[in-house]
Design brief:
The protein is of the alpha+beta class. About 15% of the residues lie in helices and about 45% in strands. The two termini are about 25 Å apart.
Length: about 190
Amino acid sequence: MLCSLVSPSYGQPKQLLNDGNGNVSSGNKTNEPVATGNWTKYNDDKLGIAFQYPSGWNIEEKQNASDSRKNVTVSSGNIKFVVLKAINMPKDDPLKSSDIARSTRILKNAAGAENATIVKETDTKKYRIGGERTATFITRINDNVSAFKLQDFFVIHDGDGYLLAFRAPVEIFDEPDSQKILNKIMRTFKFLK
């Protein structure tokens, strides 16, 4: 079963200014670190993953009580990167790399919930993790208060489906600093086994 990543609403900044030190500030003087020089390595043997993220970001790990799924979120302000094992398959019936298109369609249908629009269709050539194809697409989510973009990545590894998601406010999602962070996280992401 796939898990949907529907996030809470966040206030939409009126104006974003980059102070030259990797901090973005909105009209309300709240700083959101976008890029940093120092990175921290995250390792999780249970999820079987490792990646790097900006050192000043918060980390939150959650374990689903009803099954063995676990997820991890690293975040700074309104910017988040989430990893979860979305589909646990029995070892005698694993997902195959040929299942990526069907699984991604299911994921896109779940992501296309109320107030969400697919803004970039599935691309299976942009990212590879451990040599495996990764399907990615971008969703824009609007509500009465805020708007943000969510880039979902789906990869099949060792018979299971993993969902990675990067979310940022619409105003800064496509900015070079945000995309540098996303690209470095994706370049450093690996499976441990």
